[in-house]
Amino acid sequence: MSDLEKIINEAWEIKDKIKPDSDKNLNDVITEMIASLNEGKISIAEPQGNDWKINEWIQKGILLSFRINKRKIIGGPYNAWNDFEHLPGKTAGWTEKEFETAGFRAVPNCVIRNGSFIGKGAVIMPNSFINIGGYCGERSMVDTSARIGSAARLGADCHLSAAAGLGGILEPVGSRPTIIEDGSFIGALSEIVEGVIVRKGSVVSMGCYIGKSTKIINRETGEITSGEVPAGSVVVPGSLPSKKLGGPNLYCVVIIKTVDEKTRSKTSLNDLLRD
Question: Which residues are tagged catalytic?
């Protein structure tokens, strides 16, 4: 256990007593934790073999950061916001040198909060939002108006299409965040939430809504599962007929096939955008 983890776990036990600026040492520790999140040295969801380890202490640290920091008014010429002082834009004040070192492209009007990680070669498009604790892997694209919530993870070489969302989760502490593994494609207007895992190389088509209880049906085998999309799946919206005559159908998603070259040709990333 690291010193950061130990101090944050101890502070969590007395969280109700913590107030803004009440503990400078804890504030320094949380600042260091957020810096490590920015650099990708730590993350809430950490790969462990074929599974994922959830670092509860980081979830605790982020939640404590809202107790120990004050809110302040952030004003512009047309709008004002009342937000926490430790959550400025990740790239606020950056020069060309910082962007060159980070190696990703941030298009005007995207919002990348402090405490999120963006990998080299990633592209963050306008009106998209990445919250504290969010993770965007190398060479991935977060398209226009897409969202990566707190703790949610988008792997490397992924495409999160326009207005798609990955649900964030910080509490209950220990809850698994939404995870999209490497090489996956999430279609426009889709929502992946409640700790669902989309395994490597999958394609989720436009308008799929997948939560932990959403039924995932394999069209070929008839198998019904939930909570995880198998690697290399092509998934589309569907409905499960009612067992009762005249009853309402139940929303589901359907695995219609495994990813093939034809699918890849339609969903592959364009390297020209990442040079």
Answer: 143, 168, 191
